Prior knowledge:
Blueprint: H1 3-16, H2 29-38, H3 44-57, H4 61-67, H5 69-76, H6 82-99, H7 108-111, H8 119-130, H9 139-148, H10 156-166, H11 175-185
Helix pairs in contact: 2-8, 4-6, 5-6, 9-10, 9-11
Amino acid sequence: MKKDDIFEFYSRLAADNPAPETELNYGNVYQLLVAVTLSAQSTDVGVNKATRALFEKVTTPAQMLTLGEKSLKEHIKTIGLYNTKARNVIAMADILVNEHGGEVPEDRDMLTTLPGVGRKTANVVMNCAFGAETFAVDTHIFRVGNRTGLALGKTPLAVEKKLDKGTPAPFRAHAHHWLILHGRYVCKARTPECWRCNVADLCRFKKKVTEKPKGR
């Protein structure tokens, strides 16, 4: 996609949603880190349901350690891979308390040393909590980047690098939110809703779905 088209692409997404935010519910940076960690291979809706009661009790890593792994599992047992996630969240809390004074580090490399925290999770936390211009490439952004021609890449990291290089300055802070939401609600995996997409004319996808399927 050409530079002018990329600028126009983001301009239209920004016009529709000037201040996009993550759909995960959280009250502070630590809760955000936990929520994003839990969201791997799970929906934001499912994570929000699981963390509603949890976050009423737990706002700090120390409180998470007091809660304990067994009780944590009871809170998050409705989401996928909850046993592994509970183990990671407790181990993460222990490291935060003992090595970081109970604070979530702002450095991506440091974040990715925490159990259960990969590059995507670190990028989300850095962007949402600390305002860093990072691009957290999940399945939606990977699809949108490749399907539209905005950022072609065979791996999430390759797409991230293309986005980092090609996203214009005015849109860098919110870019990954716009792309996630666009992929989640418009540029869907099975049937992209091209008939109502406001960037369809800029998109390089050849098999556009120009009419709403009957019965939908």
